[in-house]
Amino acid sequence: MSNRYHLTPAEIASLPASLNIHPVSSEARRTISSPGDATGLTTLGVNIFVVAPGDKSTEYHVHACEDEAVYVLSGIGTARTGNDTHSVGPGDFIGYPKGGPAHEIRNTGDGLLQLLVIGQRLSEDVIDYPNQDKRLYRYAGRANDLVDKERVSPLDFAD
């Protein structure tokens, strides 16, 4: 590595990567490497997701507390945001504000879909998975708590 704060393209390409299968949906399979972690970022997640044809980058979800953003590096996909779907490709940027519509991206191309995924890393967050009727509570220093939404009150994102 050239230094802790600067990564060359070759260094980014050689970062360790691991297959991650989303805990709520096996369709959400992605290989993740983290230039953010490699440079010491702690409150901002900066990751490269590589998604195989037919797979999703994540399960359809919405964060109550954290903003997210995705920049498409290569490949072709379909982004679902709320009730809308649209094609995405290299150079496209998608911002997902906290409390906005639920979202996901599926690789609908023949090759790999590479995404630069950026998001906050707050100590607490609540994530809803509408297709699964699940809610995840994340607390710093504690195990995540995934529950059936029928057991909890609806979130009011207007607060």
TL;DR of this structure?
With 159 residues, the protein is mainly β. 6% of the residues lie in helices and 43% in strands. It contains two helices and 13 strands, in the order αββαβββββββββββ.
Report Rg: 16 Å
**CATH class, please?**
Mainly Beta
Distance linking N and C termini? 44 Å
Assigned CATH superfamily: Jelly Rolls
Instruction: Provide the β-strand percentage band.
Output: 35-45%
Global shape? globular
Strand order of the largest sheet: 1-2-3-10-5-8
Provide the domain count. Answer: 1
The CATH topology annotation reads as: Jelly Rolls
pLDDT below 50 for ≥5 consecutive residues: which ranges? none
**Total count of helical runs of at least 4 residues:** 2
Structural class: mainly beta
Largest sheet: 6 strands, antiparallel
The CATH architecture can be named as: Sandwich
Number of strands: 13
What is the H-and-E element order?
HEEHEEEEEEEEEEE
Helical content class: under 10%
Can you give the mean pLDDT?
92
Describe the structure.
6% of the residues lie in helices and 43% in strands. It contains two helices and 13 strands. The model has no long low-confidence stretch (mean pLDDT 92).
List keywords for this structure.
six-stranded antiparallel beta sheet, four-stranded antiparallel beta sheet, Jelly Rolls, 6% helix, 159 residues
Element layout with pairings:
Elements: H1 9-13, E1 18-21, E2 29-33, H2 35-38, E3 44-51, E4 62-63, E5 68-74, E6 77-81, E7 84-88, E8 93-96, E9 103-107, E10 113-120, E11 124-129, E12 134-139, E13 145-148
Antiparallel strand pairs: 1-2, 2-3, 3-10, 4-11, 5-8, 5-10, 6-7, 6-9, 11-12, 12-13
